[in-house]
Design a protein that fits this description.
The structure holds two protein chains of two kinds. Chain A is an alpha/beta fold. Chain A is built from ten helices and eight strands. In chain B, the strands form two sheets. Chain B has a seven-stranded mixed β-sheet. Chain B has a two-stranded antiparallel sheet with strand order 1-2. The chains are: A alpha/beta, B alpha/beta.
């Protein structure tokens, strides 16, 4: 079950993190929140819960005034153009275990959010304190960025601050500068709306089209019952490892990426007819250990599944 | 004949399963150690033979002399050449949850041996030992054993050829019978002599050594090796474990078993240098498998002891001291490409390459390693641990 607001607040107290809390009626948008805590000094935050095409999740937490361009972020993360979308509502409940309108860095305290990457606005550092929802929309807490850091470190996270407004020209000469923030545990939370596990078709159930993000990031109608219903346990992780199609897809992705990288006008000129052999050797040496490792995982996982199925099966009596 | 026991080592240098310290805070003298323990150097001819027999390049740890000593490894190879297989036995004392790279080394090498020779492997988790020596509760040491099992599994062992067991779970039956057989052959005085026990040590410690000895005998695992009483055993381990197996090899012929063969590694240096101690309480003395890319970068840049000179001019003039340089040492463990390593050593030693560049390369290598481990670890479930630890036959263990 997800962490509650009370549990979070007592955790903050245990960690001796200074914060102030403000109760108010439930708010779903930054504007609404501003009505209650906007005059207290400090920075209001807007928090976006995003997803990429490979079902990896991100929280982008920024000062309300910071302009966040999803296209730019997507390129900086190495996801190409339009690789980032708003995450579907169900994911809020399943992954972050918070209600609509309540995306907050504190949601990372939940086990289910283990693989969510967090990008924090470097602007937070310049503020005395910033406001976040403590896992519930009927309260805002304000704390200094050092308190946020302390909390994140206590849950094993490395706080990463980013200049979200920067727009470097990502290309051959300038690789994606935020690529290290892409989560590595990629197949743990398949989108429940996708029945097939093929990574190509990603149906977005979100109604929000991600153009330049203004303060309104959330659907106005909020049904608390829906959010609770969606708190189902995530799919069996081992099933996603032994899925043959995804496994093959991943291998082909890696091989293609290498091929595309190594076959360029330059290398064609350099090696001519030998390019095939050269690239083939590169692929072997570069991918060998990694593929051996992932395939051994595949083998061991499949065996484990069979082993447990065997253990739990009732042996038929045959006369 | 087995040579003199541990307590007769040169004063100053102490190497046993619970203490490793060099003479006067210097470096461990491995030649003296081999001499005193009575094991053999693993020379190039043996390495070449491994390459010939297995048709594969020898593991980087063999090429770089990380695994540098052995007992009867040549007999294992003789038997293998004749078509007689063997099995592998290694283990870990689960004293902490945090595993660092040094802990992974015997497992990485054992995996290579399993893949290359296509032989089965038993892995012993000595939770009872840690319970006794580190004064952990039984439950805590069992929990640590399972947690460590996950990191061990993440090293890439083949579940169809590997049996992991914890002492608290497995001791009993045929295993215990062998323990008693061994115990009857070792006098109290002898075990005190080998391990340095005193009158103040509790009897649990004194009776532990047979537990670590008997996995060397195939009859300890009837569900695996039924009827194969003459299967040989090869034990990859760090050289500080040698005393257990000296004792085992002494006892084996007396109870009608083959002596286990050993292949032994040197110690992995702490980030601060060979003379430094790797300590679980100092997270900056080692790279942990849970370290992020950022942590690794930080630790290497800040704490890895450098053999480079104080200033760039001096460095270009005199070159680096490769003997004490930790990044070079770590690269020799983990950088697979011999040519690249040679080149780095040459350029750095001559002062043409700077410490920063060497560290950068090391950070790349280690980050890749740790990342791959982390991914594999993430895929290890409790069910998988249960399966690895289940007492079950391994029908394809020699294929």
């Amino acid at each position: 079950m997800g962490f509650s607001k009370e549990q979070l607040l007592s955790r903050l107290q245990e960690l001796q993190i200074d914060y102030s809390q403000y109760e108010h009626p439930v708010v779903l948008t930054v504007e609404a929140q501003a009505k209650y805590v906007g005059n207290l000094g400090g920075g209001l935050s807007k928090n976006l819960f995003l997803k990429d095409k490979k079902n990896r999740f991100y929280i982008v937490s920024a000062l309300a005034d910071t302009k966040v361009d999803l296209k730019v972020l997507s390129a900086r993360l190495g996801l190409g153009k339009g690789g980032l979308r708003m995450a579907p509502e169900e994911a809020l409940g399943e992954v972050l275990q918070v209600p609509l309108g309540c995306v907050t860095p504190f949601a990372l305290v939940n086990e289910s959010a283990r693989h969510v990457s967090l990008l924090l606005d470097h602007g937070y550092k310049g503020q005395e304190n910033c406001f976040f929802h403590p896992l519930s929309n009927d309260m805002s807490i304000s704390l200094n960025v050092s308190g946020l850091d302390k909390f994140l470190k206590s849950i094993g996270r490395d706080p990463t601050y980013v200049d979200l407004e920067a727009n470097p020209s990502i290309g051959k000469d300038l690789p994606p500068d935020l690529a290290t923030l892409v989560p590595t545990g990629s197949t743990v939370y398949p989108d429940p709306s996708e029945k097939t596990t093929s990574l190509k078709c990603s149906k977005s159930t979100s109604n929000i089209t991600p153009t330049t993000i203004s303060a309104k990031t959330l659907k106005p109608s909020y049904n608390p019952q829906n959010a609770k219903d969606k708190l189902v346990k995530s799919e069996n992780p081992s099933a996603s490892i032994t899925n043959v199609e995804s496994y093959v897809e991943a291998i082909l992705d890696k091989t293609s990426a290498l091929l595309i990288k190594e076959i360029t006008e330059e290398t064609i000129k350099e090696h001519g007819g030998q390019l095939g052999t050269v690239v083939s050797n590169i692929i072997r040496s570069r991918l060998c250990s990694e593929l051996n490792s992932t395939t051994m995982t595949f083998r061991n996982t499949a065996y484990t599944e069979g082993f447990h199925a065997g253990r739990h099966s009732n042996s038929r009596q045959t006369c | 004949m087995e040579k003199k026991e541990a307590e007769e080592q040169e004063p100053g240098q102490v190497v046993n399963p619970w203490t490793v310290s060099a003479k006067g805070g210097g470096k461990i003298d491995y030649d003296k150690l081999i001499d005193q323990f009575g094991c053999q150097r693993l020379d190039q001819s043996l390495i070449d033979r491994v390459e010939r027999l297995t048709s594969r390049p020898p593991h980087v740890f063999l090429r770089r002399g990380v695994f540098f000593a052995h007992r009867d490894f040549n007999e294992i190879l003789d038997a293998y050449e004749r078509g007689d297989k063997f099995y592998l036995y290694t283990g870990r004392g689960p004293s902490s949850e945090a595993l660092h790279l040094g802990h992974l080394i015997p497992f990485m090498f054992t995996k290579y041996l399993q893949d290359t020779f296509k032989v089965p492997l038993v892995i012993q988790l000595t939770d009872d030992e840690k319970c006794m020596w580190r004064n952990l509760s039984v439950e805590e040491s069992q929990r640590l054993a399972r947690e460590n099992a996950k990191d061990i599994i993440a090293c890439g062992f083949d579940i169809t050829k590997t049996f992991i067991f914890s002492d608290f779970d497995y001791v009993g039956g045929a295993f215990y019978k062998n323990m008693v057989r061994v115990a009857k052959c070792v006098t109290y005085n002898k075990v005190v002599g080998i391990f340095g026990f005193s009158g103040e040590d509790h009897i649990g410690k004194v009776s532990f050594p047979p537990v670590q000895a008997v996995p060397s005998f195939p009859s300890s695992f009837p569900h695996l090796f039924n009827g194969k009483d003459h299967l040989r055993c090869l034990i990859p381990c760090a050289i500080d474990q040698d005393p257990y197996f000296r004792m085992t090899r002494d006892v084996a012929p007396r109870i009608g078993y083959h002596k286990p063969a050993l292949i032994e590694s040197s110690f992995f240096p702490a980030l601060q240098g060979e003379t430094g101690k790797m300590s679980a309480s100092d997270p900056n003395s080692a790279i942990y498998v849970t370290d992020s890319g950022k942590d690794i970068k930080n630790k290497i840049n800040r704490y890895a002891f450098s053999g480079g000179q104080d200033s760039i001019e001096k460095h270009r003039q005199l070159g680096a001291n490769l003997e004490v340089d930790i990044p070079i040492k770590y690269l020799s463990f983990f950088l697979d490409d011999d040519l690249e390593l040679e080149n780095i050593k040459k350029e750095y030693g001559a002062g043409r390459m700077l410490t920063g560049e060497v560290k950068k390369r090391l950070i790349e290598v280690l980050t890749e390693l740790v990342e791959r481990h982390r991914q594999a670890r993430a895929a290890v479930t409790d069910e998988m641990v249960d399966a690895f630890m289940a007492v079950r036959p391994l029908p394809s263990m020699f294929s």
